[in-house]
Amino acid sequence: MTTPEPADDDARTPPRVDARHAQGVQVNSGGGNTQINNFGTAGAAEVVWPVRVGGIPALASAFQYRSGPRTQIDTARRAGKNVVLTQVLSGGGGVGKSQLAARYATEAVKDGTDLVVWVNATRPDTVPAGLAEAAARIHVPGASGNDVEADARALLDWFATTDRSWLVVFDDVTNAYDVSAWWPTSPKQTGWVLATTRLRDAALSDGGRKLIDIDVYSQGESIEYLHARLTEAEQGHLVDDAAGEVADRLGRLPLALSHAAAYMINNAASCTRYLELFNAGPTNLDELMGGAVDGRQQRVSATLLLALRAADAEEPAGITTKVLRLAALLDPAGHPDALWASAPVLAHLGLPSQPATTSQAHAALRIAHRYALITHQPTAGPRAVRIHALTARAAREETPDQVQGQLANAAADALLELWPLAEGDAPTAESLRGNGMFLRDACDNHLWRADQDPHPIVFKIGDSLGNTGNASAAAAYFRELASHADRTLGSDHNATLIARHHEARWTGQAGGSLAARNLLLALLPDRERVSGGDHPATLFVASDLGRWIGWAGDAARARDFLLQLAPRYERVNGSDHPHTLTVRGELAFWIGLAGDPAQARDSFLDLTAAWNRLDTDDPRAINCHHALAFWTGQSGDPRRAMVIAARTVERRRQILGEEHRDTLRSRRDLARWTGDAGEPEKAREALDEILPTYERICGAHHLLVLNARLLLAHNIGRARHPHEARDMIAEDILPITAILDKSHHILAAANHARWTAEAGDIEPARSKLATLTAQLERLHGPTHPDVRALQSELTHWTTGAETDQRVIGGLTMI
Asked: Which pairing describes strands 210-213 and 375-376: parallel, antiparallel, or unpaired?
């Protein structure tokens, strides 16, 4: 770096000094005590340039260049701006801000910058003290050594007028107000300021300062760091294929990676071994990352929670610790802002006799955000409050077990309070479910105790998976839950039996009808033995068993089983109880599928009247209207079915929302009855409108989407375009069903055969239908409703007879 010529007012040649006339004031700069001496005028030693003031941290081993942030810093610097390094992620300790600043300071010293000042800015007194020390070192005019603040202001004046090059680093600004009066300026653009902070105060960007977010490492930078650090220590062989996963588990936090690398080096542990130790728990985070790292005895927990003491001192005092401890039990990816206005959380934040107010909770969130312990972004919806994974782990390890138990139950209660009855908003459902899963993993011992039933949230998580379209994941979740309950609570514990019931239900919803039936056949005698034959839980298992007997292929047996069960429900609960009405609806459904759609229609007509007397907004009441429309159409009156379906669509829109899956199902069925009523073009338009929403919400391979596409093809064919219908099924549906359940592929292929026949190729279509019918019969048996639908289609193309049930009208559309 070229050193500019000194200006006339430059402090290049101070008077000679005599140490015998020295006076001093002791200050704290850069973390250590420094004696600043003011020498008398008897003479002064000449300043030897360049000058370095303050303790610039040594660069960490295997320091990463961080090209992205450096480009931003250099661009801002060229524009004449001072730079404040902050970070966008919560839990901001350890992202490498100080190391990046140290790199710039070290480079400035190496390049011959005239004055490099490193100031520890953690306390109000250290900033002017550091500047005063620099003023004394270069003998700034007006710096007497008797008044720290006056000397600091004298140095600011020097910065504003000098032609010498300079760099000032304010490291770890903990309060924007503490530095507000001490920002150097450089009208001649000979110097600049670099600051690091965990704060996000607007004041930090005043005066032309540029805030630059310092993120954690990318995965590539993380792996490069581990490789460089371990290779430097002649342990490069410890870097293996698990390096990327180690980086991800540590949140790619530079400080955490440095401690992890030290552990690997000191213990000859490979990345794979380190990952095993980290995942095993409950190893203390400091033990796993302990030891000296680059000569610094830094504990990860202390690094990440450094700002907590200061944050807790702000009003409302003492709440920030509670906020951090509770947030640490939730998903680091974020949770809804509304959680902090829930009754359980306000009770936790307040005193035993006086809950906190929503204003106090919001203020505490903002304090925690300002100190970068969390990230609070109210506009981020269901992910408005986030916390870094390692901040969370450190906070959990600092929380007493008894307190953590109270926190876990408060968090679980709050999540349940937020959980909507109808999970129409997918991002919200995903956030609540993710937070519930994280809470269960972090606090399983508090939510799942041998002396009581588990917290209801452990069941809500799995049901949410199924209710939002992932029945297979729900079944797997409850399978694991049932196994866990059996091991920890015993096979006859209520929680074990509940988990087994949910496993069976979602197994069936995922397409495993036979498996669901068999699971329920095994569960029912256990539930009767433990709870009694008339217990509500026993009756629920029995009604679900009736349903899955039917879906496993025996509609008549399901009907007969439910005919015997319905009177038990009525005797136990009464004739108009919702549970009784629900099982009567199940019975009516299987009466229809067993061959009497008119009786099913009449039964649902009676049931809708009964539900209307109870609660017209109950989802079960609306389901009953949906079923009434279906069986009205199946009974040969599609136009009347259209009217009922249209009313159902409006009710579901009002209660569940436009994009809830049940609303979309009702819209699909309305299109179906519109086509059956002789308006295929209108049905086609409705389905064209529905499908993009279906695909966005459910995914292109979801069965609801495939059914809607199949119905669209059906109405294209009905509108006298059989070739287009055939080709659409071949191109858009069969390639997807080929990788799904075999029975779904058979049904899609049967519909393709139908429209192949309608297009004029009757013989190959008939042969294909015969093959498909035999295949489906081997899967489900001869009485399964889908098998009967294929038999009807085959009969039509063999004899020319019109039958009651064709392929598209079978269970593929229910």
From this structure: unpaired
| Closest C-alpha to 259, from 300, 303, 203, 219 | 300
All residues at 6 or more sequence positions from 259 whose CB lies less than 8 Å from its CB, including other chains: 289, 290, 291, 293, 298, 300
The span from the CA of 167 to the CA of 405, in Å, is 50
Angstrom distances, CA of residue 555 to CA of 552, 583, 788: 8, 15, 11
- 66 touches 221 (CB < 8 A): yes
List beta partners, residue 169: 118, 194
Verify that 189 and 289 share a domain, yes or no: no
What is the C-alpha to C-alpha distance for residues 361 and 346, in angstroms, rounded to an integer? 7
DSSP β-bridge partners for residue 293? 296
Determine the pLDDT at residue 283.
Answer: 55
Check whether residue 320 and residue 397 sit in a common domain: yes
Residue 467 lies in a domain: no
523 in a structural domain: no
Looking at the predicted structure, is the pLDDT value of residue 6 above 50?
no
Considering only 130-139, 191-200, 645-654, 673-682, which range has the smallest mean pLDDT? 191-200
Range in 224-228, 288-292, 396-400, 541-545 the model is least confident about: 288-292
Q: Which two tokens stand for residue 170?
A: 């304010």
d(C-alpha 411, C-alpha 428), whole Å: 16
Average pLDDT estimate for 108-125? 88
Q: How many other C-beta atoms are found inside a 10 Å radius of the C-beta of residue 539?
A: 21
CATH of the domain at 204: 3.40.50.300
Inter-residue contact 342 to 418 (CB < 8 Å): yes
pLDDT of residue 431: 87
Q: How many domains does the chain have?
A: 4
Q: In whole angstroms, give the CA distance from residue 612 to residue 256.
A: 60
The more confidently predicted of residues 701 and 539 is 539
Instruction: Indicate whether 189 and 237 sit together in one domain.
Output: no
- Give the range of the structural domain holding residue 404, as residue numbers without chain letter: 315-425
**Global confidence as pTM:** 0.64
Quick: pLDDT tens for 732-760.
888 888 876 687 888 889 999 999 999 99
Do residues 95 and 41 both lie within one domain? Answer: yes
Preceding peptide of 619 cis, ω within 30°: no
**Given 373, 401, 425, which residue is the final one in a domain?**
425
Q: Are residues 138 and 195 in the same domain?
A: yes
228 and 184, same domain (yes or no): no
The total of other beta-carbon atoms located within 10 Å of residue 522's CB is: 11
| pLDDT tens-place string over residues 383-392 | 889 887 767 8
Residue 455 lies in a domain: no
Q: Which residues pair with 61 in a beta bridge?
A: none
- pLDDT band for 65, please (50, 70, 90 cuts): low
The rounded distance, in Å, linking the Cα atoms of 237 and 223 is: 13
pLDDT reading at 43 higher than 60? no
CB count, 10 Å around CB of 80? 11
Across 417-436, average pLDDT:
81
* Consecutive H or E run containing 683: helix 680-698
The more confident residue out of 9 and 76 is 76
Q: Is 225 inside any structural domain?
A: yes
265 in the same domain as 327: no
Q: For the chain, what is the mean pLDDT?
A: 82
pLDDT in tens, 484-524: 999 989 999 999 999 999 999 999 988 788 999 999 999 99
Per DSSP, 19 falls in state G
Please compute Rg for the chain using Cα positions: 36
Domain C-terminal end among 393, 425, 457: 425
Burial class (CB in 10 A: 0-12, 13-18, 19+), 161: middle
In total, the chain counts a number of residues equal to: 814
Please give the average per-residue pLDDT across 87-109, as a whole number.
Answer: 71
Same domain, yes or no, for 276 and 197?
Answer: no
How many angstroms separate the Cα of 570 from the Cα of each of 528, 567, 591? 18, 5, 19
